[in-house]
Design a protein that fits this description.
heterotrimer, A alpha+beta (about 375), B alpha/beta (about 230), C alpha+beta (about 400), B: Rossmann fold, six-stranded mixed sheet, four-stranded antiparallel sheet, 7 helices, globular, C: about 400 residues, alpha+beta, ten-stranded mixed sheet, two-stranded antiparallel ribbon
Chain lengths: ~375, ~230, ~400
């Protein structure tokens, strides 16, 4: 026998109670996994590559358009390596409910601006050559079962063609992937030239620009220069680093982080009470036995360690079970939720945080009972056996 | 340590319990010497402080005044940690209600004190097997306390008490909860441990039948020791 | 007659002993009560968000209000009309009329960036240009402060929701939109409807500022009666000059809020369900420990002649009582913390912010109590059965 055996035996003493406590803790951690994933879905999406990019939009609001002539002016500003534009197409394919972004872009420039977009070179060549060609992210391609060579009609209420028709046809010539899990693989990108020529109104106007800066450390300074350049023009700009731009969108939803933290706080507080109570009960019931151990010669330190070890094992069992379930449940939910929450996954960072919380839970719930056990006066304890 | 000299010396010991605002003097100016190898019976009416004295000798409690010396070491001076280690090495307890851990089998209960030593698992197992043979319970080694009779549980208790080969065996009413036959078996065992294995035994009891097995009996009444029973 | 009364008094006695023993089991009782309070509190809190949001979307939808968009447009943002088309729409039969003419307001809206007070970051806020009939068409509008805007001038009035959530919208301050200053001259309320999240101005002034020429995005109309809807709709959809879709406003708003409402409601139920399962485990724990602490007592009662059924019922009663205590606590806390909590979020379908208040309705409170009761029943059943099936003799002997 070893100390581990002693700990196990004590936990097996009241199997039902141990089981119920472990399950309560497990549930809390499943919730943790779920809420972390939701938070990730809503707030994630900032690309590593975006560190040296700025987004330039119309100062009044994102729905205002900017002149295409601004590109040349931007590229003359010191600190700017390259600038390229894209526009909100706002269309849908068959089912309005499945949202994905479509943008007319300048293909060569766009691909260079976004190295996280992985497109096989042969597909890239075809795209550059084909005016009506479009490349699409793998997620959307799989969703609609599109293959290279398909001709797909996209309807948009915003941009009517010269003949008044809202339906635009594109040839799928490439399917792209993203470098990281959080990179976009849902968009459809096509030629700006095709778009500008065929659209009935808004010619020469684009949605927003992306700028690559020469030195990421100078990003904020360059952003200022860009806005100053267009300060007194008809269309004023607002420029900010890509990360800030994306964050601003998320902040529109509200304080997601706060809400999830509040809910999780409530949940863990409750679990703490439940588990702490179980541990206290368990120790109180064994007052006499703990006295015997002391009589035999177990030191106070050993007794403390014993009780803490029990509570930590309990927490670890529950936490491990809960986090493990979360690792299975979240990916299973990702598919049905993909329309509403495309980036739904359980980040490793949060898994580690969860494990840390689990350990802390074990220590905190065992602490006071352990102290209690340690301070037992042996003679008193033996009498209560 | 003096093998043929005094093992336990209690000198001018007083024990006062504080219950709320009252002070209860359980032991007053006690003197006792126990030579090594003795089987001492400690008798007296209930409330006379027998168990308290036993606890003091075994290092489970400290005297309010005076000294307790076991094997040349004064236990009153030791820190809690030191005392615990000392107990593990030198004392074996046998309790009236056996005090076995219900979650452990008999052999694991016996093994418990050995966890505090540096013996390997194989060595520990060997010690356990040896003492279980001494108390004649080898065939019940893997049973849980709840499936053992009172007498068997007490034998496990004794096995646990001697597994570390302690200097001193302290027994608090070891037959108090047993019927006559089982009680006799226990007393036989204690006597054997004393006579054949040379263990010093101090036994608290209120049963003259039990105390008859001892080599010497002292009487405790109202906190004072004497050689004669008080009426 | 003696039978049922006898039985009831048995139940009462066993239950009384149980409840009297609570102080000794205070730890586990508190844990279970708080666990259930947590479940009910979170459930009501999150659902009150969905209820509040839906209320804001539906509040202004009276049965005789209609909205006309371009055919194929899901929302105002992507819809568009020429001025002539709006005139044709105004001439259609079925419209209510007042002294100024048909009650149809041709409108357009844009989005401007304002600072959200709660997060200090930017948010998309709708700025709507309305026609003269707008105030009649949406008849719950009331000026709360200041005055309404003057036609032909760059003045705006602000909904009370928007004024609360976004910075810089006090009466007397001015918005800088593009190169122009737009003074804020008043605030209005709209019985909690979406208009309260918006800023309003004259449509023609907005068209000029945004170079929209003479195009609009939607027409809000008031019908002569709710029954006139069909006639109105048919005349417009069959008109060859027009390519429109006609909806009752209630229908339109309901459609606008589905995604977000569904998301919030689903999440709320998901989280609360998981918590409820956890609470059931907690309740089971408590009740099992309650029963085992009273093993000898229950066995004695049964030895004396108390029926097993009475024991079962009383243990379940105890469990439900604890659950109701927890449920009430949770409902109370949720109500105090959430009800009326004003906030704003972005409605993805319209790309702009909607302000609303968390709303704790009696229905939600009832839902919470029901959940608590179910948890109490679930947590009490198995322990109750165990208590009833105790082997009496063995239990009496237990030390």
């Amino acid at each position: 026998m070893s100390f581990q055996h002693l700990i196990w035996s004590n936990l097996k003493r009241k199997k039902l109670r141990t089981l119920l406590t472990v399950l309560s803790v497990a549930i809390a951690f499943v919730l943790f996994g779920l809420l972390s994933s939701i938070k990730q879905a809503l707030t994630g999406g900032v690309s590593m590559e975006g560190a040296n990019r700025l987004v330039v939009q119309h100062k009044v609001s994102i729905i205002q358009l900017l002149p295409v002539s601004y590109k040349a002016r931007m590229e003359r500003i010191s600190g700017v390596a390259a600038a390229t534009h894209q526009t909100w197409f706002g269309g849908y394919y068959q089912d309005r409910k499945y949202f994905f972004m479509q943008c007319p872009v300048v293909p060569a420039e766009f691909l260079e601006m976004h190295p996280e977009l992985i497109l096989p070179p042969d597909q890239k060549q075809v795209w550059l050559r084909t005016r009506t060609g479009a490349i699409v992210g793998r997620k959307t391609a799989e969703r609609f079962h599109w293959k290279i060579g398909d001709r797909v009609p996209i309807q948009t209420p915003i941009w009517a063609k010269g003949d008044g028709s809202p339906t635009w046809d594109f040839d799928i010539v490439g399917i792209f992937d993203g470098k990281e899990k959080t990179d976009d693989t849902m968009s459809l990108l096509f030629h700006y030239d095709y778009f500008d020529e065929a659209r009935r109104s808004g010619k020469g106007e684009v949605g927003w620009y992306t700028i690559r800066v020469k030195d990421p450390a100078q990003a904020a300074a360059v952003a200022k220069l860009v806005d100053e350049e267009f300060e007194n023009s008809a269309e004023e700009t607002r420029t900010e680093p890509e990360g800030a731009f994306l964050q601003a969108w998320v902040k529109q939803i509200g304080n997601i982080a706060l809400m999830t933290a509040a809910i999780l706080g409530a949940v863990f507080f409750t679990i703490l009470l439940v588990t702490g109570n179980t541990m206290s009960q368990a120790v109180r019931e064994r007052t006499g036995e703990l006295g015997v151990l002391k009589a035999i010669g177990f030191t106070n330190g050993r007794i403390l360690a014993l009780v803490l070890a029990e509570s930590c094992v309990l927490a670890a069992l529950g936490g491990g079970l809960g986090l493990g379930c979360a690792c299975i449940v979240v990916p299973a939910l990702a598919k049905p939720l993909s329309a509403m929450l495309p980036m739904f996954f359980f980040p490793v960072r949060d898994l580690l945080v969860g494990s840390g919380i689990c350990l802390a839970l074990g220590v905190v719930t065992g602490f006071f009972p352990a102290l209690q056990a340690m301070r037992l006066c042996v003679a008193d304890a033996l009498r209560r056996m | 340590m003096n093998t043929n000299g005094t093992l336990v010396r209690v000198d001018g010991v007083e024990k006062v319990f504080h219950r709320g605002s009252e002070d209860i003097h359980v032991l007053r100016d006690l003197h006792l010497e126990v030579p090594a190898g003795e089987f001492l019976a400690l008798m007296g009416p209930s409330g006379s402080g027998k168990s308290t004295l036993l606890n003091l000798i075994g290092g489970l409690d400290r005297p309010s005044r005076g000294t307790v010396t076991v094997g040349g070491e004064q236990t009153g001076q030791m820190s809690d940690r030191h005392l615990a280690a000392w107990r593990a090495r030198h004392i074996g307890f046998v309790f009236q209600l056996y005090n076995l851990l219900p979650v452990l089998t008999a052999e694991r209960n016996v093994e418990l004190p050995l966890l505090l030593t540096h013996l390997s698992r194989a060595e520990r197992r060997k010690h356990v097997e040896t003492v279980l043979a001494v108390v004649a319970l080898s065939h019940r080694a893997k049973h849980y306390p709840r499936t053992l009779s009172g007498g068997e549980q007490q034998r496990v208790g004794i096995a646990r008490a001697i597994v570390t080969d302690p200097t001193l065996l302290l027994c608090d009413e070891p037959t108090g909860d047993l019927d006559r036959k089982s009680g006799d078996e226990i007393l036989d065992l204690l006597q054997a441990l004393n006579r054949q294995h040379g263990k010093t035994v101090i036994m608290v009891t209120h049963d003259p039948h039990a105390s008859a097995r001892a080599s010497r009996t002292v009487y405790l009444n109202k906190g004072q020791l004497s050689d004669r029973p008080v009426d | 007659m003696a039978g049922p009364i006898n039985w009831l008094s048995q139940v009462a006695s066993v239950a009384k002993f149980g409840l009297l023993g609570i102080p000794q089991r205070l730890g586990s009782v508190t844990a279970a009560v708080i666990g259930i309070a947590g479940v009910v509190g979170v459930l009501i809190g999150v659902l009150s968000m969905a209820v509040g949001f839906q209320r804001a979307m539906n509040a202004s939808a009276s049965a005789d209000a209609a909205i006309i968009l371009r055919s194929g447009a899901d929302n105002e943002m992507v819809s568009g009309f020429a001025r002539d088309e709006t005139r044709v729409i105004s001439d259609a039969p079925g419209l209510a009329r007042n002294a100024q003419g048909p009650m149809a307001s041709a409108e357009l809206f844009v989005i401007i960036d304002l600072l959200k007070r709660s997060t200090g970051t930017r948010a998309n806020v709708p700025l709507r240009g309305v026609g003269p009939a707008a105030f009649g068409v949406r008849d719950h509008l009331k000026m709360e402060k200041g005055r309404t805007f003057a036609w032909g001038r760059n003045e705006v009035i602000v909904g009370v929701g928007a004024a609360q959530e976004f910075a810089g919208l006090e009466v007397g301050s001015a918005l800088k939109v593009g190169h122009q200053q737009w003074p804020v001259v008043g605030t209005f309320s709209a019985r909690g409807g979406t208009a309260e999240s918006e800023l309003w101005t004259d449509a023609t002034v907005l068209q000029e500022a945004y170079h929209r020429g003479t195009s609009f995005q939607s027409v809000y109309a008031k019908l002569s009666s709710p029954a006139a809807f069909l006639q109105f709709k048919d005349s417009l959809t069959s008109d060859p000059r027009l390519n429109v879709k006609v909806l009752r406003q209630a229908e339109y708003y309901a459609g606008q809020s589905t995604v977000l409402s569904t998301l919030i409601t689903t999440l709320g139920y998901l989280v609360a369900s998981l918590m409820a399962i956890g609470a059931v485990f907690g309740a089971l724990n408590t009740m099992y420990s309650s029963v085992s602490a009273r093993t000898r007592e229950i066995a004695t009662l049964r030895a004396l002649g108390f029926g097993a059924g009475a024991v079962v019922v009383s243990v379940m009663l105890e469990s439900v009582a604890l659950a109701l205590a927890g449920g009430t606590l949770g409902a109370g806390v949720a109500y105090l913390a959430c009800n009326g909590f004003h906030t704003a979020t972005v409605n993805w379908q319209s790309f702009s912010q909607v302000t609303f208040a968390f709303t704790v309705t009696p229905l939600l409170l009832t839902q919470g109590i029901v959940w608590a009761t179910i948890i109490g029943l679930a947590g009490g059943l198995l322990p109750a059965l165990r208590a009833a099936r105790l082997p009496i003799a063995a239990a009496l002997r237990e030390l």
